[in-house]
Design brief:
heterodimer; A: 107 residues; mainly alpha; 3 helices; B: 219 residues; 8 helices; 2 strands; 76% helix; 2% strand; globular
């Protein structure tokens, strides 16, 4: 499978899952983390968390902001460096060649 | 994977910290050394970015709930599991401090599953598959294995800490319960992540010969 094939698979499957969530609208679509919490309490009903998060986002909106920020920073980093790879190829390779030629000519 | 704050008994929380810490420390050291080369620095940024993006996204799945992919597959293939453990620790720390996602007490356990064990087994899968097939397929396999293993490990971490009854049968019962929550949900999500990682590797291969060489280098 070529590069574009994998991208299509990834994005396509994700699209199917998202659309599926609209179709299966009766499901709760909660997070698996919360379900784990429920699962723990089912198994050990007396368990109480002994530590609370140091800071909780004051609202769902702010939580979305912070998640989006994380994704955005990651996305920017990826985009910048992937783009650099594409357009700097010939330049950096020649630089490296020149440098190694200089080094070997000094020995 | 994210076990929530305070939801691991203190003795388990401490034990997982002890497991994860040496890998994170060694990973930090290796990452610092990698920052010297401009090309490896760029690949490192792309790998770390992938973790940032994917672990921030909650995807719906076939079970009617949502979960995060791990995003660690790319780092595993390009830099090996040790560097991946350090990068994962950074992301998990951010999420535990600012997002109340995961936790500081559970940071050791979450790094152990997402940063250490998942990546090591995924890397093992990569080394097994790579001689037999091309880089993209290997990346796909490694990423899916890393992703699924991470969640299986999380389920087991919870199962040993919260057995439904004393003894091995209790652990097994809890394990299947937690795997039903995490692992099944993760099946399609892991495939999405694997496909995206393979696509990015494909792009990198087309872009530069040096990436080809870099990926020949083990952990």
């Amino acid at each position: 499978m070529k590069g574009r094939g994998y991208a299509a698979l990834g994005i396509g499957l994700l699209a199917v899952l998202v659309v599926g969530s609209f179709v299966m609208s009766s499901a709760a679509w909660g997070g698996a983390d919360g379900q784990a919490e429920e699962g723990i309490l089912e198994v050990s009903p007396d368990y109480e968390p002994w530590f609370n998060p140091v800071w909780t986002p004051p609202s769902g909106e702010i939580e979305s902001l912070l998640f989006s920020l994380q994704a955005a920073v990651g996305g920017l980093a990826m985009g910048y460096y992937l783009g650099r790879f594409r357009f700097r190829s010939s330049e950096s390779d020649t630089e490296a060649e020149t440098r190694s030629t200089d080094a070997s000519s000094q020995t | 994977m994210h076990i929530m704050e305070g939801f691991l008994p203190v003795e388990w929380a401490a034990a997982w910290y002890i497991v994860a810490a040496p890998f994170v420390i060694y990973g930090a050291y290796k990452t610092a050394k990698l920052m010297d080369g401009s090309r490896t620095k760029a690949l490192l940024a792309v790998s770390a970015g992938f973790i940032f993006v994917l672990s921030a996204l909650k995807m719906p799945s076939v079970t009617g709930s949502t979960s995060h992919p791990t995003g660690t597959g790319l780092a595993v293939v390009l830099f090996g599991p040790v560097v991946t453990s350090f990068l994962s620790a950074v992301v998990l720390l951010y999420q535990s401090l600012l997002l109340a996602h995961g936790g500081i007490t559970t940071l050791g356990a979450n790094v152990a599953s997402m940063g250490v064990i998942g990546p090591f087994i995924g890397y093992g899968a990569y080394r097994l598959v790579r001689p037999r097939t091309d880089l993209q397929k290997s990346t796909f396999v490694a990423t899916v294995v890393t992703n699924w293993t991470t969640y299986v490990v999380t389920s087991l971490q919870l199962a040993v800490a919260f057995p439904s009854e004393a003894g091995l049968s209790g652990v097994v019962a809890s394990a299947s319960k937690f795997m039903g929550i995490f692992a099944v949900t993760q099946i399609p999500i892991g495939i999405v992540e694997g496909a995206l990682a393979a696509a990015i590797i494909g792009y990198l291969l087309k872009a530069k010969e040096s990436v080809r060489k870099r990926v020949g280098v083990p952990a």
